[in-house]
Structure formats: structure tokens, C-alpha cells
Request: fold
Amino acid sequence: MKRAAVLAVAALGACCGLWYWLARGQPVALPDVPGERVPCVSYAPFHRPGQSPFVKGLVVSPAQIDADLAALARRTSCVRTYSVDQGLDAVPRLARKHGMRVLLGLWIGRDDAENAREIARGLEVIGRDADAIDAVIVGNEVLLRRELPPAALRAYIDRVRGATRLPVTYADVWEFWLRHRELADAVSFVTVHLLPYWEDDPVPIGRAVEHVLRIHAAVRAAFPGKEILIGEAGWPSRGRQREGAVPSLVNQARFVRSLADSAAAQGLRYNVIEGFDQPWKRRLEGTVGGSWGLLDAAERDKFPLRGPVVEDAGWMRGVIASGIGAVLFALLGLVMRPRARLAGIGLLALLGAGAGAALSAQLDALAAASRNALEWSIGGALTVAAVVAALAAAGGLARWLGGGTPPRPASAAAVVAWLKTDAAAWSTAERLLGALRFALLFAAAATALALVFDPRYRDFPLALFAPPAVALALLAWSRPSDPEIEERMLAGVLVAAAPLIVLREGVANVEALAWSGLCLALAASVRRSRRGRSREDEHPEEATDRAGPRGVERESGRAQAGGGERPG
Reply:
């Protein structure tokens, strides 16, 4: 029964991996955007490698801005900017060339001198290019960031409004407009941000546009006589799930296209965030921060505004990776000694299929989340460790399925002792499994603690940990190990963190549920036998029947080298 259960779990994992990639290739029908254009999009030019508004002295060239606006002109006739610094003062002039209008943003923060320079430069731009500008937005989420009190912010708005005939507004999330209604008479119209994904109570995609329309109506009722502009509305294409709000390319397309359809029917003004994916935002908001663009960082359209949308046009690579994983894992069964039996080779193929699908997803996640060489190195090392651990554990399970004795991961203390003394009480496979298990336990425990205490911008690394967690847990079920205090402490962290993560994220968060399950599976890989030692150690004569003479010889060698006790 235990062997049948292991095969069933392996088959389930393979099916889940295959289903994941097949589902990403299914076309999804969505509402069409009227005219295949949205009215306006947020524009920041910091989407190329090394670019960020935090890079001192960076000035984006007019040539890049011109190319960016040419790409955006395929989808919109208006851009909203957030500053006139770092080369952005050229936007109105270049927008005119492409027949586009501009909502000109002036960045306001806590530094009065910087604010004065920004306003002075902005007024110069207005004086030169007012014919291309529809309105001026003085400050963006200043109250949300708590950088200025309302009175100081109002003074800046009044200064700009007194210096131009253009409409002047201020932009902030809708809650802060409702808290500071006294600012309404300082602006020509009210500009609110409505981002269902980032709400304190995240809104699932199925209710996201309804939420935007409902809040818009509430803001309009709070400011009678004032026009309302939705200054930011959007949905991320990648990143971590927040309660029931799931980032995905299809969901991003669903939100933008459904909002466009509803806004056209009701005559609402809105601006989509944003034109391009902004990789630099990953530093502030994790993977999700860099994934709000209608175009990717390479200026390619991410989804069409008409017709069906596919989550991943390259979905076949995951299916191919699953097949390659199945073949490679099965080949292990043919070259290992003793050679795996048919059932063992079948188990290896199933585990390999799941591992291959997960590896393809992990490489995608690594590319989306990594910002520099250090993050690539750490993520790459963990990916290699996960693959090798899954492969080694799968080989042990195949041996067990054929009636042999599988390797048992050595404890971290035993691995360290072996490095110091070169004692041979553990086989190479057991030392490798022990070292990899400890590394993965440590990484998972650190991730789990971060998701408990600082989760907002952290992804759930499901594809990274799924193959080794499942394989190591099954291996421990087939033959318990002798973990030391280090492994037990890490397992304890994972067991304690799992329910806390679910409580914090909510049961609607499928990613949180899956991650908590993987935490428990990894903790189970540290399972001990009831008496701290396995039946094979207590009854070597029974091990003879299962492992053969070679297995008994190995067990005897361990006893002689270790004096009958485990090292460490």
C-alpha cells in the first residue's frame, strides 16, 4: 500500500505540472477595447537595464523617449508623466510629434528645495509646450507617503495654479481624497488612484472593475460639481497572489479590456498604469512591481486589445521540459546500480515529469524576480540544489520500490564530521542528500519567516521547492532518517510558520495554501523513526532480504566505522 501511495503521489505531481503548462496555453475570450486604444497611460522611461529614477545624474535621452512614445502611440493618444526631471521635460515636445496629449506630472516630496526646482522647471515646460498639455498634476501620493501635510501640499498646488491657465490637479489613492476633502477647492478636478490588487482588502479579478466603478461613484458623490479622473487603474501580470487577487497576463488583459468597455459605456475618464514594465520597481515592490505595463521592458506588446488572450505563448516549452525530465530521470534508473526495476523506472519518469515542468516554471520566475548578479547567483544555486536533491531522492525511492534499501540523508552534523575526519560511516549519496536537505530546509525556513513577518512584496517560491519537498518527504516516509537538532529546529520553524502564513494570507490565497503545504512536506523530510533508528538498523537480518548481500555489507561497514553509533 505504501508503494502504491508513493506512485500515486508521483503521478499526481506529474499531472499537476502538465496541467499547469497546458492551462497557460488555452485562449481566453475577453471583451474588446473600443477602437483598440485606451485613452491614456502612465509613462516612465526607466525600463532599460540600469535605469531607475534613483540613479543620480541619470538623464534619459530624447531619442529613447521618442522611441517609447512611438511604441505607445500604437495603443493610446495620451501619456501621464510624474516628473519633469531626468529628461522627462522633453515629453510634451516629443508627444506633439506623435499626435499625443500629455498629463504633465510635477514630483513633490519632503525636500522644499527640490520641490522648488521641480516646479520652476515644470513652469518652463508649460510655457514652451502648453499646447500639448491637457492638465498639470502637482504631486503624486504625497499624502499616502506622509511626506507633507495637506496645508504644505496645497501651497504648492496654489503656486502652480496661479502661474498657468491649464487645469491643475493632485493625484492620490481614493481613501486619502476622502480623508482630505478640503483639498478639493484647490484643484480643477479630482484625480484618484484605484488599484484593486493593492487595496487593503485585495479584490479578486472577477470583481475588480465593479470595485473601480463603485468607488468612482462614491468619490463623485463626495465631490459634487468636480470632475473625477481615475489617474491610475491597472492590474499586474506577474507576482505574488494577495488573498484572492491573482497577478497574471490574462487577468491584466481582463482588467484593462473590461474597464475600457465599462468606461466607454459610462463616459468615465481614466488612465492605465502603465505604459512599460519597470524592472527597477522590483526593488521596492518585488516581482509584482515591475509587471504593470501594457508593453514589456523591451517595448513589445504583452497582450492584444481585441480577440482571445493566451497566458503564455511559449507554453509548449513547459510540456517539453516535462518530457525531458521524465526521460532523464528514467535513464537514471537504467544506469544506477543495482538497476531499477520497471516500477522504479516508472516512478522516476513520473517524478521527472513533475520536476521538469517545475524547473521550467522556476526559470521563468527566476528571470522575472532577479534584479542583479547576486540574486541570479543565489537563485541559480538554490535551483541546482533543488534539482539535484529531487533527482537523488527519486533514485533512492526507485531502489526502495524495487525492494532495496534507499539512502538516508545524513544529518548536517554528520556531514560536517565527515568533512573533518573523512569517516566513511555514510555513503556519498547519503552525505549529498543530507547536505542538500539542510540547505533547502534553511532556505525554506528563512523564506517562511519572511512571509510571516514581512510578506507584502515577497513571492511564494512554489516551483523551486515543490520537487525536492515532495521527493524528500516520500523518501523519509519510505525510510526515516536520524536528524540532529539543527534539522529538527528548521523543521519546527516550517511547521510553526505554515498556519501563520495561511491565517495572514487567507484561505482564498491558493499560493499561500500550496506554500504552507510544501513547508509541511519539507518538515516531514526530517521524520524520525519511532525509536530514533530504522528497522533496518535494529534488525539487520530483515534488511538482508530487502537489500541483498551488498546492502548488509554496507550496513556492517557503517557499524564498524561508527562504533555502532551515528557520528555527530
Remarks:
- Residues 2-19+313-562 form one domain.
- The chain has 19 helices and eight strands.
